[in-house]
Amino acid sequence: MDTFYTYFSEKKGWAGLRELMGTTFSERRQKQTAIRNFDIICTGPEIDTEAALESTSPLNPSSTGRARPGRHRKPMPLSSKPRRRCSGRWVAVIVLVMLTLLVLLAIGAYFLKTLIDSKFFFCKTSFKFISRSLACDGKEDCANREDELMCVTNMTVNSTFPVRLVTNSSVLQVYTRSGSWRLVCGEGWQIQHTQQVCQQLGYSSNPSSSMVAVNSLPSSIKTGFSAVTPSNSTASGISDLLTDSSSCASGSVVALSCSDCGQALGSQDRIVGGTDTTIEHWPWQVSLKIDGQHTCGGSLVTPRWLVTAAHCVAGTSNEVDLWVVQTGKTSLSPWGVSVDRVVVHGKYAKNDYDIAMMRLASPIKVQAATRPVCLPPSGLQINSSEPLWVTGWGYTAEKGTVSTILQKADVPFIDRATCLKLYGSIISPRMLCAGYPEGKVDACQGDSGGPLVYKMQRWQLVGIVSWGVGCARKNRPGVYSNVDELLEWIYTVMEKTS
Ligand code: ARG
């Protein structure tokens, strides 16, 4: 009655009384039960007993003795189910929120690191940041000039690289102490000599040698012979082991295969006028990126070294660690592996000597989608009836965009005299031209640094996409760095870079 009075007089007057009277006992019971159930969910089991006693549905039969039977009533199991439901849900929500926060935090940290990395160089020993523009050498150095260690370097080669492979069968010639190129007789040649020469050429895996009959060779290369002399000396180069000779007693000379290069998936069948292809057909093709953006193409020539164009590197930052190399993928993605050396030709200027090399931080695994291309034998004569192939993700039209899928196109070789007529004397011996007189098919922006290859028994890298006037224009063929003229530089870089 107390409650009734308070309710009537203080709160709602007669309306309140009617409201109270109009509520049946069972309705009020239900309301109270609902309120109690809510309490159970949110406060825990101490209310359980009371609620079980008053409620129409048994919450815990152990506290009521026996559950009253009813159509929809089933005894509850012994456990305090309401509480479990409550805490289980909350734990799940908390875990979910924490996980989301962690993921967001990790993403934030990644972007922050990328941002800081792009603006600052961290000196590990002196524990300080210096602006990227000061590394490689914009001056202000880290304590032990650590910021000068990972920079693009230039290299010019003045001396003759003393070993080369010639003709389609890769016959070995050595520049001996007498100052001439000489073939090497088969007699006395052993596996360790093969290993030594291949290593000197920058190859460390799968070297093998074969013998080629002297009388099957063109006279142009028979400029002299030499033979291994048994010695116990600690020779530094193969030429120290050779003695000039007028002929070979065995009648044969050494030919070498230093690498498992130039093999690709079956034969054929943007580049402007090209078609979609897959990386397994051109497994040496790589994409070079800065800030995740495709910048240029490149070609693996060993599992660790790739060849590209100097102009791809020269216009950008001098820091090696900004480069990322995507290998073994048909489609462009922002990811790749890092690089620990970048070497640009010291004579690179105005499209001449347009070559650079990069060394991957760790070698690729040679497999179907990642495999080096062969460096051609010196003085390789390209048969103009055979096509050259150019591949890349470059523009598919002169004012177009890059292609996400690797493109291929075949372009005929254009002899030097014709190319000189088309472009004039800017065509140096370090350049070669390829394309159709009417244009239509060509490399374009973004293909630079990528391969121009020629198929013999194996694929040979004969050119590097370098320049052109527009893309695929009539009488304006693509111009490529002439690998044949740059072989010595390539071998020297691989040999001399520690
Ligand atoms: N220089 C261009 C690049 O950086 C490649 C130009 C090739 N042009 C041509 N018409 N073949 O990607």
As residue ranges, the low-confidence spans are 1-29, 31-81
- Using the alpha-carbon principal axes, give the shape: globular
The overall number of domains is 4
- Share of β-strand residues: 15-25%
The secondary structure category is alpha+beta
CATH third-tier fold name of the largest domain = Thrombin, subunit H
State the helical fraction: 25-40%
Number of strands: 24
Strand line-up across the major sheet: 11-19-18-22-23-24-21-20
Number of helices, where a helix is a run of at least 4 consecutive DSSP H or I residues:
9
Average of pLDDT = 83
Bound molecules: arginine
The level-1 CATH class of the largest domain: Mainly Beta
- Major sheet details: 8 strands, antiparallel
Question: What can you see in these coordinates?
Answer:
This protein has 498 residues and is of the alpha+beta class. The chain folds into four domains: 2-44; 89-149, no CATH class; 163-257, SRCR-like domain (Mac-2 Binding Protein, Roll); 275-497, Trypsin-like serine proteases (Thrombin, subunit H, Beta Barrel). It has helices at 2-22, 25-43, 48-54, 61-64, 81-119, 191-200, 310-314, 416-423, 483-496; strands at residues 120-123, 128-131, 153-155, 163-166, 171-175, 181-184, 208-213, 225-228, 242-245, 252-257, 275-276, 285-290, 293-300, 305-308, 323-327, 337-345, 356-360, 388-392, 407-411, 413-414, 431-434, 451-455, 459-467, 478-482. Strands 11-19-18-22-23-24-21-20 form an eight-stranded antiparallel sheet. The protein has a six-stranded antiparallel beta barrel with strand order 12-13-14-17-16-15. The chain is globular, with a radius of gyration of 38 Å. The termini are far apart. Residues 1-29 and 31-81 have low confidence and may be disordered. Arginine binds next to strand 23.
